[in-house]
């Protein structure tokens, strides 16, 4: 697995021996299979309700997040970081959903010396809003479908429609 910093001309590549997948279900299974093919140890996390899930069975290691809602389990950053430390994972892959679009989680990973496999916090913030993502794409000559700028009122939206 590799991660690039925010400057693509200064790409950083790092190979890991152990990666925690902070997700469940089909996406976690796909990540685990890829890690196995790369010879990298996979660490799954799971809520008690997901004990018999395929991602738990396929992972090299699995840690229970306890009972409760997604907020209490898969989104519990303190618990996730505790498991990262206990498992000695060097990186975390968020899959999609849950923590994958949380810039604060990325910054916490960085401050703890854990590699987040995904976009940087700044990239998340820039691309998290359609109008800023569109501005960045236009400045980089990315072909886009016709659209509008940021619309600030219902009247503007009605006129544009």
List the helices and strands and how they pair.
Blueprint: E1 18-21, H1 25-38, E2 41-47, H2 54-58, E3 61-66, H3 77-87, E4 91-93, H4 103-111, E5 115-116, H5 121-127, H6 130-139, H7 154-160
Parallel strand pairs: 1-2, 1-4, 2-3, 4-5
Task: Tell me the fraction of residues in β-strands, as a range.
Answer: 5-15%
Q: Could you spell the SSE succession in H and E letters? A: EHEHEHEHEHHH
Give the overall average pLDDT. Answer: 90
Q: What general outline do the C-alpha atoms trace? A: elongated
> How would a textbook summarize the main sheet?
5 strands, parallel
Question: How many angstroms does the end-to-end distance come to?
Answer: 44 Å
**What is the number of helices?**
7
Counting DSSP E segments of at least 2 residues, the number of strands comes to: 5
Cα-based radius of gyration, to the nearest Å: 19 Å
Strand order of the largest sheet: 3-2-1-4-5
Instruction: List low-pLDDT spans.
Output: 1-12
Helical coverage, percent range:
25-40%
Category from helices, strands and their pairing: alpha/beta
Report on the architecture of this protein.
With 161 residues, the protein is α/β, with parallel strands linked by helices. It is 39% helix and 14% strand. Strands 3-2-1-4-5 form a five-stranded parallel sheet. Helix 4 packs antiparallel against helix 5. The radius of gyration is 19 Å and the shape is elongated. The protein starts with 17 loop residues before the first strand and ends with a helix.
